[in-house]
Specification:
Helix content is about 15%, strand content about 40%. The model has no long low-confidence stretch (mean pLDDT about 95). The structure holds the ligand N[C@@H](CCC[C@H](N)C(=O)O)C(=O)O. It is found in: Cytoplasm. Keywords: Amino-acid biosynthesis, Cytoplasm, Isomerase, Lysine biosynthesis.
């Protein structure tokens, strides 16, 4: 058996192993995902993006009921769990489809567990994603670094809790999982910590469900802008968001939000077939 093709890429340093699997034959177990993402025993990444034709999916994949997308982004977190959506991942996924020739258009939809996400691949290879509505679902509390921080709960297809702070988010210790209300978020939650630098400019750090602290989270930046707008009494606006891995631009609108940012590739190669088989 030959090796398994992979690429390594990132969106604002939220990094991914991309596994092309058009026919859907790859057995991507939680164990294999966790090993691939492990920075010592694997390639190292925040998550895995399996590139599979929608027609090759089993019939029961959430989000695909009304899908018109030819390609499905099967996103997995570094701990092996599947998640509904990944805003940085979908940009990398879209660039991969265009550059590999699997997609000849520059504007098309990508299927995800949160539903189809229309994308536009720009001439400079940055990508704009239509992220759907960002829904405010209530208020809750995160406990980080011994501090209790109130937050706005936002659903962007996946769950987020956004805490805005007066002191610099750079000072937070995010090495350990912050505590949150498991009754409010029974499936877990992504936690964002945000400073308003000036109107239309946010700074953010994130502790992702299923991963830990990452250098960026696309859905998290959309949640952050939606929460900041909500707290200032509106539901529409545009903001840049600076995360440790770079900058993205987010527009929030009740009709739907957009996320624009870079998508980069750094390597491609083959997984060792024996290593892969040993993880089954
Ligand atoms: N990094 C992603 C979000 C990935 C999924 C998240 N960890 C979850 O479990 O919901 C992004 O860029 O949006």
């Amino acid at each position: 058996m030959g090796g398994i093709e992979f690429l390594k890429g990132h969106g604002t340093q939220n990094d991914f192993v991309i596994l092309p699997d058009a026919a859907g034959g790859l057995e991507l177990t939680p164990e294999r995902t966790a090993a691939l993402c492990d920075r010592q025993r694997g390639l190292g990444a925040d998550g895995v993006l399996r590139v599979v034709r929608s027609s090759a999916l089993p019939g029961d994949v959430p989000g695909t009921e009304d899908s018109a997308a030819e390609w499905f982004m099967d996103y997995r977190n570094a701990d092996g769990s599947a998640a509904e959506m990944c805003g940085n991942g979908v940009r990398v996924f879209a660039r991969y489809l265009v550059e590999s020739g699997l997609e000849t258009r520059r504007e098309f939809a990508v299927g995800t567990r949160a539903g189809d996400r229309p994308v536009q691949v720009h001439p400079d290879l940055s990508v704009t994603v239509a992220m759907g509505p960002a829904r405010i679902t209530g208020a809750s509390v995160a406990v980080v670094d011994g501090r209790e921080l109130s937050g706005v709960a936002v659903d962007v297809g996946n769950p987020h809790l956004v805490s805005t702070m007066d002191d610099d988010v750079a000072g937070l210790d995010l090495r350990d999982q912050p505590r949150f209300d498991h009754e409010f978020f029974p499936g877990g939650v992504n936690l964002e910590f945000v400073n308003t630098v000036e109107p239309g400019a946010l700074r953010m750090r994130v502790y992702e469900r299923g991963v830990g602290e990452t250098r960026a989270c696309g859905t998290g930046t959309v949640a952050a802008v939606a929460a900041a707008l909500h707290l200032s009494g509106t539901d529409t606006g545009t903001s840049t968001v600076d995360i440790p891995g770079g900058r993205v631009t987010v527009t929030v609108d009740p009709e739907g939000s957009t996320l624009t940012g870079p998508a980069e590739f750094v390597a491609r190669g083959e997984l060792d077939a024996g290593w892969w088989a040993s993880l089954a």
